Amino acid sequence: MAKKPKKQQQPGGTPATVALTAAGTAFTVHAYEHDPAHPSYGEEAAEAMGVSPDRVFKTLVADVDGDLTVAVVPVAGSLDLKALAAAVGGKRAAMADPAAAERTTGYVRGGISPLGQRKRLRTVLDESARGHTTICVSAGRRGLEVELAPDDLVKLTDAVVAPVGRA
Fold it and tell me: Is 116 exposed, middle or buried (0-12, 13-18, 19+ CB in 10 A)?
């Protein structure tokens, strides 16, 4: 029996960029030199790209009533766990165990992307994203971001859009 050829990834591609390419979505990749000593992955990305922190969104994984859920919020703020639970019809939310988040998404902390996850999780995008033509999210590894239209992110992740970020 002949072996099936493996799918080829683009050089330097991540599951997130592969998913975007496969969907035919317009996006721009921004690479920068990650500094492990920087205290905030998201703020580091905004600074390195010269982009306002309200346009750079971090991907956080929370546990909502026993189900892992992704929240995508501006790096300039924080996640409102009560609002996240309400957005998905849950009662209680807490930040997920980092090891469980990494294992489930297939990405490392600081490089978790809402796109191309190993197991597709419910996703909630903060409503502030709709105020921008494009936003930046992790491309699946530290030092790599993708810029895309918020509506494209919603479409590709089946995201709920709700006020889950706090300034």
Answer: buried
Residue 43 pLDDT level (bands cut at 50, 70, 90): confident
pTM of the model: 0.89
pLDDT for the residue numbered 65: 97
pLDDT for the residue numbered 55: 95
- pLDDT-derived band at 42, boundaries 50, 70, 90: confident
HEC assignment per residue over the chain: CCCCCCCCCCCCCCHHHHHHHHHCCCCEEEECCCCCCCCCHHHHHHHHHCCCCCCEEEEEEEEECCEEEEEEEECCCEECHHHHHHHCCCCCEEECCHHHHHHHHCCCCCCCCCCCCCCCCEEEEEHHHHHCCCEEEEEEECCEEEEECHHHHHHHHCCEEECCEEC
The separation between CA 157 and the C-alpha centre of its own chain, rounded to angstroms, equals 10
Strand order across the 135-141 sheet: 28-31, 144-148, 135-141
Q: Are 131 and 78 in contact (CB under 8 A)?
A: no
Whose tokens are 């491309």? That residue is 139
- Number of neighbours of residue 76 by Cβ within 10 angstroms: 18
